[in-house]
Amino acid sequence: MTDLPIAAAEEAVAATATHGNRRTAPFIPLPLTAARATTLAGAVITIASTFMSWTYTTDFPGDLTVSGYPGGLQIMTLIGAILTGVVALGTFGLTGLRWLTPSRTNNGVLLLALATLGTTWYTVIDIAAKLGGLANLDPGGFVAFIGALVLFAGALALPLDRHPEEPADAEYYELGRAEGISAVVRGYAWLREARLHHSELRVPDARKLNRWLQRLVIVVVYALGLKILTFGLATDYSDIFIGYLIVLAVGVWGLSAGGLLKQFQQLTQHNKKFSSTVGVLTAIAYPFAQNNELWANLGASVLIVGTVALGLNIVVGLTGLLDLGYVAFLGVGAYTAALVSGSPFSIWSGTQFPFWAAALAGMGAACVFGVLIGAPTLRLRGDYLAIVTLGFGEIFRIIVRNLDGVSGPKVTNGPNGIAQIPDLSIFGYNLGDTHSVGSFTLGRFANYYLLMLVITIIVVLVFTRAADSRIGRSWIAIREDETAATAMGINGFRVKLVAFALGASLAGLAGTVFAHVTNSVVPDPYVFSGSVPPNSAFLLAAVVLGGMGTVSGPILGAALLYVIPQKLSFLSQYELFAFGIALILIMRFRPEGIIPNRRRQLEFHEDETPAPGNRPMGDDTVPATTAGA
Amino acid sequence: MTTTIPQQPTPADAAAGGTLLQARGVIMRFGGLTAVRNVDLTVNSGEIVGLIGPNGAGKTTFFNCLTGLYVPTEGTVSYRGTVLPPKPHLVTKAGIARTFQNIRLFANMTVLENVLVGRHTRTREGLFSAIVRGPGFHKAERASRERAMELLAFTGLADKAEHLARNLPYGEQRKLEIARALASEPGLLLLDEPTAGMNPQETRATEELVFAIRDQGIAVLVIEHDMRFIFNLCDRVAVLVQGEKLVEGTSEVVQNDERVIAAYLGEPFEGAPADEDGTPAATADDASTTSEQENDR
Ligand SMILES: Nc1ncnc2c1ncn2[C@@H]1O[C@H](COP(=O)(O)OP(=O)(O)OP(=O)(O)O)[C@@H](O)[C@H]1O
Ligand SMILES: [Mg+2]
Question: Which key words are in the record (chain A) (predicted)?
């Protein structure tokens, strides 16, 4: 297959096939030049609007009354509009910006325009709703509203690429007419088309870049990622955070539809060691980028839940065993560490293990517990296993509650738990104290964040190495087809038990740090489902949301599920409700999770080696005018 | 298709002609239904044995009894003289590998990974070795991969090694099942309808493949409805009807046996297990056309 040069392809709008995909007639029938002009005009109007005042009063979060420079949510609109405009220019063929859309499809532009529209309209409607009516809008607000609409309309007038197997327009059209809601259905159909799969995108091979340039790109992207993350965390109001989320989520989706993410993935795969080193360095830089204990605490908590979710991913994602009581293993680790921490409330208040010994003890105890629970239950399949693990999870909490010296022997101090767990001290470095490194100060939570980072790295290594080995393959084989796996010589019970015990040990390891970070352990968090994070349902949701069987998926999922409710304070009462809605949406629209498994990506035929017709990267080498149609 | 299968001959192969598999008095009951009635079967090394019979005769059930997926109600299965425990993974370890009538690949694993899973019993590396990744691990992993690639080359799938199993066309999925089974270095391979759903060319290729496997010293027991395939291939054919072994012998013997033809057409025959459902008798016309077809082959 040869890629058509851009100019030629654009002439053949409604006809078939650049990139092996079908090119569709646009949603709004406009000549191509008019569509482009509309898009760009919309971007310009929207950008201009962010320099105007959107409302009269300063009551709205982020002060949108200032003319002359953007503030609060206007910044989100500005970023969205600039990004859309720039990417559109590149897609339209402006030399120097073409690299922004390596796949040469308009799908990304549509999604970016959607991101801009989403955040702008959200802001305008939020102003009207919060302050009581449209009267509170300044002309700038209306300009923004119209500008974003024009931008989106322009993007809808561009022809999209779509996967050849998606239903044709006509089918959607028929469906729409039949149901009498054709506009809505067609709109939905268009959005679906904007969603080209990763593997369907044909992009120039980024690995042809100069090696050093490749590495520079990796560094810049990671640094930018950290910057975007801290920017989001620093937003003061829920409203602004929502605008931020809209731009970020739909914007990343748009850039990925344009092929940038795929190229970046090529780069990281080509420079594996380098990019993981940069990744680790970026993670280390996090507490330095924000010298703020609150965020360091957030970071440490995210790493704890993320690590535990990754451990659960071995059991659920790789081996396919639904474990609904997994948080109990975190509890075993935490209680073990608390008992040997030297806390005055521990029955062995005199003994204080060094951290490495406490960590081993926590892992060991969780492992033993895992084998004890696994041995009788792993002979069960499917639903039975889920029910039994659910029961065992609750049993753990109830036992711990009752080992208080009244209902049972005094071990765990019952509902009061073990308090006053002293801070860890590793090689004389007391994690409870504030240390200064150069001009930075590392507070208590920053210290624990860094310790947790080490543990997360260990768990990631264990996960990836185990998954890519004889035992890991046998786990996946069991997940895929247990009968066939046993017929291939796999002792199903044994390898499932190993997965269960390994998952439990990793949770136990995280638990030992958890006990010290929170200073005390009590039985209550170790429930199946609750509104405070480490509970089994939360962990499971993190795995499913992020992507089963992947490394970064559960960590990302845990981070999102932990951070978003913290930033959206109004959710507090509806957290579980929002949680449920989010899971339903994910199951409906992206069952493979945010980060799809490599196996899912392979699902569509893919050729790893670049096809001979593929363009090398870089604009100058693209023959823009040679006819290819 | 290459006919060299890279195979380290197991010591017992030297004793060619010896008994590999011996099933004695196997009975399998599901509640009131007896799916396999007192079946005896032997497979000697170097042999290709066919197992035929009408739908629902109990062939697959018998395979499941042999491989430990079902625990036979009565009877024993022994391999190379030792009685097999009814545990699938131990049966595979002992040296019997199988394929499934309804393909059971690991759909979301790559072709290569599927074959690597087949090597499970012949490799040792555990969790600890996987995490530490010492030189031993890399060596074993490399050896496994090489062997798996050789098997893929043998079955003609080498260029699809990195594809997902689910994306293979039907015929290649069946071949992959065979490659995966071979990866466990079996002495006896059980094939359950290996050509079901294949076109004539693919069936021919499968025939070649089975011969090539036999030439490597692996005995084959094959279930198939394609009579031409069976009679071309097999040294010996056993006919199973309503759970009972009706006839056993060379292709000619079986082909010309009245009772077999009758059984395929549902005609009652002497000594048939007096059965609950009265199967309608076929007309003479049907019988003659079928036997003609079979003679054609
Ligand atoms: N697990 C089971 N429980 C109950 N009955 C079963 C079970 N497995 C098989 N049977 C029954 O046993 C009989 C034999 O089935 P089997 O699958 O062995 O036939 P087969 O000879 O392989 O047929 P085919 O040629 O169609 O594959 C059938 O009547 C079937 O319904
Ligand atoms: Mg069958």
Answer: Cell membrane, Membrane, Transmembrane, Transmembrane helix
